[in-house]
Write a structure and sequence with these properties.
Elements (H helix, E strand, L loop, with lengths): L1 H29 L6 H17 L5 H7 L15 E4 L8 H6 L1 E3 L5 E3 L3 E4 L6 E3 L4 E9 L3 E7 L4 E9 L8 E2 L4 E5 L12 E7 L2 E3 L1 H13 L1
Antiparallel strand pairs: 1-4, 2-3, 4-11, 5-10, 6-7, 6-9, 7-8, 8-10, 8-11, 11-12
Length: 220
């Protein structure tokens, strides 16, 4: 029996010694290597390069500047038509009917902005107020969309754009060109146009009323 167990015992002992040596050797080698060297180094370099190439915007200054401005139409309204007005629940029946627009799947939806256009031709779209771009993307329903944040809880939204010239994080001044009028699937029957929305604390506001009131106050 002693002879029968001698060989397996020797094999197990030798295997244990080899495993121990391999563990010690591997551990000693790993202690010389910093953990996650590649990930940490790459992340650090990327951050530094981004800061060097794109300095942080003074967004507070850009937004605060809009507090002293009077909102303007984002296009030359004297040369354009209101092809779809804002839906006001307190307006007359005719005005409310005119403010319904074609939605997806042949549905009608109330217009929460003002749509401007003329003869299916494109035109320049500018920032209604100074602020910071918070959205600049292509939407399958609304077309190219830009959203700008301003002071006092105001946000302006520009849909159905083409040739967008701004990106998220950009500071814009009132009157800066941000895009051109284009088309959208939501209001495709309007052709080339600009859909312009204003929201105050997240709620839609009639741009016509807001701009006319602000202009009248500024003239007093």
């Amino acid at each position: 029996m002693a002879k029968k167990w001698a060989a397996p015992s020797a094999f197990l002992a030798a295997a244990a010694i080899i495993v121990t040596l391999m563990w010690l050797y591997g551990g000693a080698g790993e202690t010389d290597k910093p953990a996650s060297t590649t990930v940490d180094t790459t992340q650090g370099v990327t951050d530094e390069q981004t800061l060097d190439e794109q300095p942080p915007a003074d967004t507070d200054k850009a937004i605060q500047q809009s507090a002293s401005e009077v909102m303007k139409w984002p296009a030359d309204k004297s040369q354009l038509d209101v092809v779809a007005p804002f839906y006001d629940a307190k307006a007359s029946n005719d005005d409310r009917l005119a403010a319904w627009v074609d939605g997806p799947d042949n549905t009608l939806v109330p217009n929460m902005g003002v749509d401007l256009g003329k003869d299916d031709k494109s035109f320049d779209v500018t920032a209604a107020l100074s602020g910071v771009v918070t959205v600049s993307e292509k939407n399958p329903v609304n077309g190219n969309v830009v959203q700008i944040k301003h002071a006092d809880g105001l946000v302006t939204i520009y849909n159905s754009l083409s040739d967008v010239q701004v990106k998220v994080g950009d500071e814009v001044k009132q009157g800066d060109a941000i895009a051109k009028a284009g088309r959208s699937e939501l209001e495709k029957d309007l052709g080339v146009h600009l859909h312009f929305e204003v929201r105050k604390d997240g709620k839609p506001v009639n741009p016509s009323t807001l701009i006319e009131t602000a202009s009248a106050d500024a003239q007093q």
